[in-house]
Write a structure and sequence with these properties.
Number of strands of chain B: 13
Largest sheet of chain A: 2 strands, antiparallel
Radius of gyration of chain A: 24 Å
Oligomer: heterodimer
Structural class of chain B: alpha/beta
CATH topology of the largest domain in chain A: MetI-like fold
Family (chain B): Belongs to the ABC transporter superfamily. Belongs to the binding-protein-dependent transport system permease family.
Number of domains of chain B: 3
Keywords (chain B): ATP-binding, Cell inner membrane, Cell membrane, Membrane, Nucleotide-binding, Translocase, Transmembrane, Transmembrane helix, Transport
Distance between the termini of chain B: 55 Å
GO molecular function, one term (chain B): ATP binding
CATH architecture of the largest domain in chain A: Orthogonal Bundle
Helix content of chain A: over 70%
Strand order of the largest sheet of chain B: 7-8-9-4-10-11-13-12
CATH topology of the largest domain in chain B: Rossmann fold
Membrane topology (chain B): Peripheral membrane protein; Multi-pass membrane protein
Helix content of chain B: 40-55%
Subcellular location (chain B): Cell inner membrane; Cell membrane
Distance between the termini of chain A: 7 Å
CATH architecture of the largest domain in chain B: 3-Layer(aba) Sandwich
């Protein structure tokens, strides 16, 4: 098993490598001269040339990439010119906030998505099934940034149950209850779409599994119907659902961009949006790379869980 | 117990796709809403709306239903209704354009990769995998960051991140198509690769491209709106739904309608597209049509009212089935898989049911303990007595108790019938504990004993194995051990040796034969192979099109088959040293059981058929003690007559 995990980790290296290539190429296709962009239109040609040399922009693309990658492997992601601090420090600080939000959402969507999907499949064609199917459809169609605003209006402005923004109370906050209190609305909003996707898939997976021969065998053994559904069918369905939960991690991490903006969550998403409007490209690049790498690791974790469940994959 | 399912009923009449789609209320609603939104957006210039960009500081932040402003005004006093309709135009245009761009490039990549195969395929697909390794929106953000905020750049970004969906879907189809005969034919006729790709392959891929577009377009509208919401898409004074929402957010607490209304529009648009897309998918998904996505209930449904209740059970029989009728309903059509079968099995006796696939032999056997999937299956009539107890009127809980304890099953393919994710030990222990209050340790010891009983060496070790780690013969021994877990009275074995190779088959048969004699267990043995019948069965029943056509002791039937079908089946058994006999398969196919002829169902394939064979139902006639045949011109009668 540990050999398998090591193998998967090794296989993730080229993917991470590919991510850096794509990010580098995107940043290289920026129109215009970055030095001019940084220094502004009043920069003297000497200053531009000096900055170009400093930034290594007078070298070939491949050389630039190798230097760039080498720096990053040493933890040097450059310096954010708007914040005047190392990119890596800012990104890591922000990323921990995003991880709290996205992790909670991923947990919520897995739990509720699986429950809804199983209930829906077990009671196929019933009223419950129809209601769940319809709510799921609403869930995957609703713009999450709009849903966030609605929840703020209802639960923060009108009912005053939860705060409208932030991660901690400004005065006297900082403990776990305070965090959960601030986390509730954004985490739920972020989880809605992924819950719908997971519920749908779970329903289909359960229905497919319940047609399998080994389910008939379980019934022929005289196992109770509950055991048939929750032990035999659910475990087999989980094997197909787990990778999708891994993929949903990507949608949750990406969706965090909206939700962090709506709820002013101090995470990497809101940082990215601000960095893009202020053209702080090193910050964008660092943030994108860290989140993408986290996504690769989430998928890796999903792979490992799937393998733990399914002995045939070992 | 449910009846035939709703989607199955819908598929029955086979109307054209559009009609099917309209039958789906939700899909129709989706279509109507989407069409309405598109029409209004298209008609925007004709609607004499106020200028969407005309500011009027005096009228700022009017609530909906204000005079002259149906949906109120925004922070600059602009009419929200007008901005909404013009914004919808922009959002639709951007979403559709992004979809078209993604579809074009994604399909092109997919087509080339699938058609070219080899290194080109690997290279392109690795690139696609890399793009997919990014969290979806993040890549779009990186692209917007590089190109700079703006509606067109947001459009490009969303299109790029959606290319992989098209490329993957199309590649799969193109890969399959490029190996088909018509592509080879086109190649031989001297057409160039480009000609083949665009004239032969593309038309066949088009439906998939359209389906993928219909499932991604809502998504793309949502995501471009999202980028605009973040201030990275449409820049003022240009406005789409997302940027309207984003601007309104700043005054959410004072004037919520400014942001709620455009959000509602995005929601309506995406929801209508998704409803429609689901409808399209439901109509096109073959799994829904065939009912493969319908959950079977725990026990076969039993039709009430067709059951004889005062049947005196045969005294020598442990299992006694009379006039069993089982049918399948697909939509309006009824397939009478089993059309009135009588059978009985005594203690320690083995009854074989023989027939081709589709003859109804498995369905007969599975009906007894209610293991025919419902929907679509249903027991339409008859009675099954186990030791005098009526199985068709027993409660579900009673049937559960009897399954695996009084009546157990061995199925055909032990790889698919054993749960792949549990060890064989866990599965055996479960079978034991389902019927006996044993501790786990006791059950484990019992499971090891069972493995010893079926001659599996090293039982304690084997219990820890997963099914895929064992050989086919070993797996089937596990299944037999599971069937013997609880001193069963009857074993129903449904082609238990068909998936095994010949030597293993002989071993498994010998084992089953020895065990039933040892434990005095009745066996109902389903097979298509008379060779297997002769090895294990005391008596045999030959089945065709849902009915028994001949019964008798194995010896009698093998020596002098009376029904021409029986004779044909016996001729199919390969004999060592006579390989040419195997070629003598039965011409034609068994009939489909939804529309059986009145007379003999075998007549169309029978070399001895005469006119009277097709006239009226043919009864089962007695030929002697324990010997019946359903034939007007039986072989043995001819032999007897000279």
């Amino acid at each position: 098993m540990s050999a398998y995990i090591a193998k998967r980790l090794l296989a993730a290296i080229p993917v991470l490598f590919g991510l850096t290539v794509i990010v580098f190429l995107i940043m290289a296709m920026i129109p215009g001269d970055p030095a001019t962009a940084i220094l502004g239109s009043y920069a003297t040609p000497e200053n531009v040339a000096r900055l170009n040399r400093q930034l290594g922009l007078d070298k070939t693309l491949v050389e630039q990439y190798v230097i760039w990658l080498g720096n990053m492997l040493q933890g040097d992601f450059g310096r954010s010119y708007t914040l005047n601090r190392p990119v890596i420090d800012e990104v890591m600080e922000r990323f921990s906030a995003t991880l709290v939000l996205a992790g909670t959402s991923l947990l919520l969507c897995s739990v509720f998505g699986l429950i809804a999907g199983v209930v829906s499949a077990v009671r196929q064609f019933s009223f419950t099934d129809k209601i769940i199917t319809f709510v799921v459809l609403i869930g995957i169609s609703v713009p999450s940034f709009w849903l966030g605003l609605l929840l703020i209006l209802v639960f923060a402005v009108n009912l005053r149950w939860f705060p409208a923004s932030g991660m901690f109370a400004i005065y006297g906050g900082g403990d776990l209850p305070d965090l959960l209190y601030h986390l509730a609305l954004p985490a739920v909003t972020l989880a809605v779409v992924a819950t719908g996707v997971i519920a749908r898939l779970t329903r289909t997976a359960m229905l497919e599994v319940l047609r399998q021969d080994f389910i008939r065998t379980a019934r022929a053994k005289g196992v109770t119907e509950n055991a048939v559904i929750y032990r035999h069918a659910f475990k087999a369905a989980l094997v197909t659902v787990i990778p999708v939960i891994g993929i949903q991690a990507g949608f949750v991490l990406g969706g965090a961009v909206y939700i962090e903006t709506v709820f002013q969550w101090p995470g990497i998403g809101s940082m990215l949006v601000k960095a893009i409007s202020t053209r702080d490209l090193l910050l964008v690049q660092g943030g994108v790379l860290v989140v993408a790498a986290a996504y690769v690791l989430f998928n890796l974790a999903a792979d490992v869980v799937q393998t733990l469940l399914d002995p045939r994959l070992r | 117990m449910t009846d035939a399912s709703a989607p199955a009923r819908r598929a029955a009449a086979r109307p054209d796709t559009l009609r099917l789609l309209l039958n789906n209320t939700l899909a129709t609603a989706g279509l109507a809403i989407f069409a309405l939104i598109v029409l209004i957006a298209l008609a925007a210039p004709l609607l004499s709306l106020p200028d969407p960009d005309a500011t009027a500081p005096v009228d700022r932040l009017l609530r909906p239903l204000a005079d002259g402003h149906l949906l109120g005004t925004d922070a600059l006093g602009r009419d929200i209704l007008s901005r909404l309709i013009w914004g919808t135009r922009v959002s639709l245009l951007v979403g559709i354009s992004a979809t078209l761009i993604a579809a074009f490039f994604g399909s092109l990549i997919g087509l080339v990769a699938g058609y070219a195969g080899g290194r080109v395929d690997t290279l392109l697909m690795r690139g696609i995998d890399m793009v997919m390794a990014f969290p979806y929106i993040l890549l779009a953000l990186a692209i917007v960051a590089a190109l700079g905020p703006g509606l067109l750049n947001a459009l490009y970004a969303i299109a790029v991140v959606n290319i992989p969906f098209f490329a993957r879907n199309i590649r799969g189809i193109a890969l399959g198509l490029s190996r088909r005969e018509f592509v080879d034919a086109a190649r031989l006729s001297g057409k160039s690769n480009a000609q083949i790709l665009f004239l032969e392959v593309l038309p066949n891929v088009l439906p998939v491209i359209i389906i993928t577009m219909s499932t991604t377009i809502g998504w793309m509208i949502l995501e471009t709106a999202g980028l605009s919401f973040l201030g990275l898409g449409a820049q003022p004074p240009q406005a789409d739904l997302g940027s309207m929402l984003g601007e309104g957010r700043k005054i959410l607490f004072t004037a919520p309608h400014v942001s709620i209304i455009p959000g509602l529009m995005i929601f309506a648009l995406v929801m209508s597209i998704n409803l429609l897309g689901d409808g399209v998918r439901d109509v096109l998904d073959p799994r829904l049509k065939s009912g493969a996505l319908t959950r079977p209930v725990a026990r076969t449904a039993v039709a009430k009212g067709n059951m004889p209740d005062d049947v005196a059970p045969r005294r020598d029989a442990i299992l006694d089935v009379r006039d069993l009728k089982t049918e399948f309903r697909f939509g309006g059509e009824v397939f009478k898989a089993v059309g009135g079968v009588d059978l009985h099995v005594g203690r320690g006796e083995c009854l074989g049911i023989v027939g081709e696939s589709g003859s109804g032999k498995s369905v007969s056997a599975m009906s007894i303990m209610g293991l025919v999937p419902t929907p679509p299956g249903r027991i339409a009539g008859g009675i099954a007595l186990l030791d005098g107890e009526n199985l068709f009127t027993a409660t579900d809980e009673r049937i559960r108790q009897l399954r695996g304890s009084a009546v157990s099953h061995v199925f055909q393919d032990p790889l698919s019938t054993l749960h792949p994710l549990f060890t064989v030990g866990a599965q055996l222990i479960e079978a034991i504990q389902a019927h006996r209050p044993l501790t786990k340790a006791q059950a484990r010891a019992k499971a090891a004993d069972l493995l010893k009983l079926v001659r599996i060496p090293n039982p304690a070790e084997r219990l820890k194995s997963y099914p895929h780690e064992l050989s086919g013969g070993m797996r089937q021994r596990i299944c037999i051990a599971m069937a013997l877990a609880n001193d069963t009275k009857v074993i129903i074995a449904d082609e238990p040796t068909t998936a095994l190779d010949v030597t293993v088959q002989a071993q498994v048969l010998a084992l089953l034969d020895a065990l039933r004699r040892e434990k005095n267990t009745g066996v109902l043995f389903i097979t298509h192979d008379f060779g297997v019948v002769s090895a294990i069965c005391d008596r045999v029943a030959v089945m065709y099109a849902g009915k028994f056509v001949e019964t008798g002791t194995t010896e009698d039937v093998l020596k002098a088959p009376a029904h021409p079908y029986t004779a044909k089946l016996i001729d199919c058994v390969p004999v060592l040293g006579q390989p040419e006999r195997r070629l003598d398969a039965i011409e034609g196919r068994p009939p489909v059981v939804n529309n059986l002829p009145d007379g003999c169902a075998f007549a169309p394939r029978c070399p001895r058929a005469k006119d009277d064979c097709s006239e009226a139902p043919i009864p089962l006639t007695e030929l002697g003690e324990n010997r019946t045949v359903r034939c007007l011109h039986p072989l043995s009668a001819e032999a007897a007559n000279g």
